[in-house]
Amino acid sequence: MSLRQQTSQESVQGLDLARLQSYLGQHGIVLNLQRAPEKFSAGYGNMNFLIKTDTGPLVLRRPPLGPIPPGANDMAREYRILSGLHDALPLVPKAELFCDDVSVIGAPFLLMEYRPGLVIGEEIPSDTIEGWQGAEPIGRVLGERIITVLTGLHAIDAEACGLGSLGRPTGFIERTQRGWSKRAHLTWGDAPPEALGQMLDWLAAHAPKSGRAPTLIHNDFKLDNIILDPDTLEPRTLIDWDMGTLGDPLYDLAVLLSYWTEAGDPEAMQELRQMPTARHGFPTREEAAAQYAQASGRALQDFTFYRVLATLRLAVVFQQLYRRYKNGSTNAPEFARFDDLSQGLLHFGVLVARGHYF
Asked: What is the model's pTM?
């Protein structure tokens, strides 16, 4: 969710405004259509719109257009998590409404509180860098705050906020490994890259012997899912909860680090373009992991396995996005480069498995 919004006619693609207005009216929400909903521009997944209502702005969130991978873009799950977590973790926005009637806008959707702020994706805005007056480099501060938010999330009592039955925490890592291995085979079909086979064989041979106590995990935790105060860069909101569940907290950390590019990484990691961590004084992946271990009290046992699994996940996701481009589900030109990117990530995962990178 970004301060940068699209205001063209594209901003209402994915919404049937007349049906939406009627449906919301039945639930006591008056939709103001004097100004068209604005589509937030960031991200490859769910679609987010700023809508105007009689009581103020809200965010409408729905899955992307086209086929949805099993278990992804789950608006019902996200609504449940927001409803339970809002009081326990103030960074989580308040849920307002959930609709599972696909006849309204063509997909399930939810409404939630709107919290404006700064979202940092591939680059830190130049005015943010120029205005930074902290004693430490801006990247060092941001990196430490990211880990602090993740540690805080993993300390939440899921039972106390009504989320103790979320997901299936028993066997989470084994099931996650099988799931991404299956998706990889389905995505690449009869011509899988050699590096994919190497990664899958390594994962099968190095699976952890025992798990650890489950916690609430975000399952796609990264910098652009944290909305920041534009002036202080303090975290203001933690968003994108459609894959949240109870699971192994080290997997959440590994997913974060799968996006965490370093200056000396291979080309694929440089082309990932997800977080600006290769510059600006950000901690290294190893330093970030050490901060998490110290703050959470969790040992990083078998962490290479988690790193490789999270890198496999990322490679499969980008290959799935590329397949959407190839079959015409999207015409976004950015997706054309994701075939090379996904295969480069597979090669990087092999290097991580062999200990060449953290």
From this structure: 0.92
